[in-house]
Amino acid sequence: MGNCWSVRIKAESPFHSASASGVNSRNNGKDGNGLSGSSSRVSSSSVPLTCRSEDEILQCSKLRCFAFSDLKTATRNFRPDSVLGEGGFGSVFKGWIDEHALTASKPGTGMVIAVKRLNHDGFQGHREWLAEVNYLGQLYHPNLVRLIGYCFEDQHRLLVYEFMSRGSLENHLFRRGSYFQPLPWNLRMKVALGAAKGLAYLHSAEAKVIYRDFKTSNVLLDSNYNAKLSDFGLAKDGPTGDKTHVSTRVIGTYGYAAPEYLATGHLTAKSDVYSFGVVLLEMLSGRRAIDKNRPPGEHNLVEWARPYLPHKRKIFRVLDTRLEGQYSLGVAQKAAALALHCLSTEARFRPTMDEVVSTLEQLQDNKDTAKKSESEPKEHSRSLGNSGHELSQRSLEEAGARKVAYPRP
Ligand SMILES: Nc1ncnc2c1ncn2[C@@H]1O[C@H](COP(=O)(O)OP(=O)(O)OP(=O)(O)O)[C@@H](O)[C@H]1O
Ligand SMILES: [Mg+2]
């Protein structure tokens, strides 16, 4: 479920350049924002994201069109105990289908899926549903969640995704309880890199898409903590020709939206970079972007943390105390500097997502972290809470993979 304080800002008006279907057009021109292709790209959309009618979008051969009755069976009649989560669009249910025939299978057999069901009528919901089918029907990347198919029958609008067994990053960072042990530093860095690669791919010349809703609840994790972006309902085609931005009404989630976007509605890939900076800061601090339960002056994470981030010693005030001893000071400083860079008030000073990816890659490879962890096992065990075990960096990661089990119906 989305962060309770992260409310949607407001609904956008119908796409201004919309075709009859409500899906806006694009061409293959350069957007002039300097974004280059991502080295992480392993596959590309074979169909260019050109102006497509609703029929064209839905007939996308790679997506399976499910009958409502099939998805009813697959989710055991949308049983409440199959609910994986709930968001603004509707509820998400766990289900099972036959891997080859893609028809409903006996619960517990075949392939596990996640079924998102739109639970309200109206144009806005339909449009977000169609945008998801349009983008995820064409974009393929290891760091984007895979859309298997959809259902469009009478008033029913559903989406069928690959099942992400560890749920959302939001749950791992902010849920408390025995199921959710604090995510270790190494896994946080791994997730940050995976999510950054997903955004870099979207911004690349190949896709040219602005995601517009980057937040912890939209970063899903598979069994190996590979991060995948979900929710393309708010995504927009990037600017084309010599345009520097796309003009839109402001929509997104409080706490994550870039200041210039909030002020002007001008959307660029750098708006996503700002949101990435917010999420990176959430990962480093273990605090929510907006948290009204904190003392006055600490409600807004970015405003509160910004003065501490450039200082060698003061960054400890920001870093999640549950991570103590799992990272070296140098690596933590670099990660904090990267977050600060992404959060630059002026968009042009922010890095591109390709640059973010290479910085994060350097941080993963930094032997400093491992050395420090191996030489200070006691600090490690302390940071793991009350486990009392002395763990090497590798076993820490394994411990993370074992301990951070996601409760599933
Ligand atoms: N493919 C999936 N596999 C496993 N769990 C999923 C999947 N998709 C969504 N979920 C779970 O369902 C929850 C709700 O997802 P959803 O995208 O509908 O809303 P949200 O991102 O939490 O909020 P918002 O509507 O503000 O974007 C997620 O946080 C996640 O826990
Ligand atoms: Mg979501």
From TrEMBL:
Residues 78-363 form the Protein kinase domain. Pfam families: PK_Tyr_Ser-Thr. Residues 17-27 have a biased composition (Polar residues). Its EC number is 2.7.11.1. GO terms for biological process: defense response. Residues 364-382, 391-401 have a biased composition (Basic and acidic residues). Residues 36-46 have a biased composition (Low complexity). ATP binds at K116. It is an enzyme of class 2 (transferase). Residues 17-46, 363-409 are annotated as: Disordered. Keywords: ATP-binding, Kinase, Nucleotide-binding, Plant defense, Serine/threonine-protein kinase, Transferase. One of its GO terms (molecular function) is ATP binding. Belongs to the protein kinase superfamily. This is non-specific serine/threonine protein kinase. It comes from Elaeis guineensis var. tenera. The lineage of its organism: Eukaryota, Viridiplantae, Streptophyta, Embryophyta, Tracheophyta.
